[in-house]
Amino acid sequence: xxxxxxxxxxxxxxxxxxxxxYPDVACALEFQTPVQLLVATILSAQCTDKQVNLVTRTLxxxxxxxxxxxxxxxxxxxxxxxxxGYFRNKAKNIQACCQKLEELYEGEVPQNLxxxxxxxxxxxxxxxxxxxxxxxxxxxxxxDTHVARLTHRLGLTRHTDPAKIERDLMAVLPQKEWINFxxxxxxxxxxxxxxxxxMCEVCSLNxxxxxxxxxx
Length: 216
Ligand code: SF4
What we know:
This protein is mainly α. It is built from eleven helices and no strands.
């Protein structure tokens, strides 16, 4: 086997430290079915997972399946998700997406990236969340605001564009790490490496993190 590049060795070190810190990771969004995870992920844009969970507890008992969302009254749906923000757009996308699921996939979520990103309101990030979390398929690395911030600070990428960050991460991490690496970075971003005040002094990565862009 050829020797690993320094970038891969470093990425493995970050992944190891995160695994030690957060051995059991899971997606913070609550769901019972892949369709529900897809809807919850669409709702999570510009909204906290906590608020999404609060909304979906009622939402999913009212609209449990793609068929229910597809047939919903749009105004009722908008009202039900209002507190997640951008509710008109989200309601329109959820309904259009579920209508396509009904039309093309018998109300189920397709299990590949190409089909998923063709659905209304579904981009690469949402598709990666659903494939990784609902089906255990490592289609890519989820890059949300936490992953973008932390990978920059940790020197795993120089890019700010999510698609380019994802490409950098996929190049240095083994595919089996893709799903949980993102979950762990998101946890770490919420708990330790916050946007405004990273707690570097208590961070388990502080021995090797270059802390790019952080003063002091
Ligand atoms: S050392 Fe600081 S910048 Fe680096 S991951 Fe930890 S909290 Fe974030």
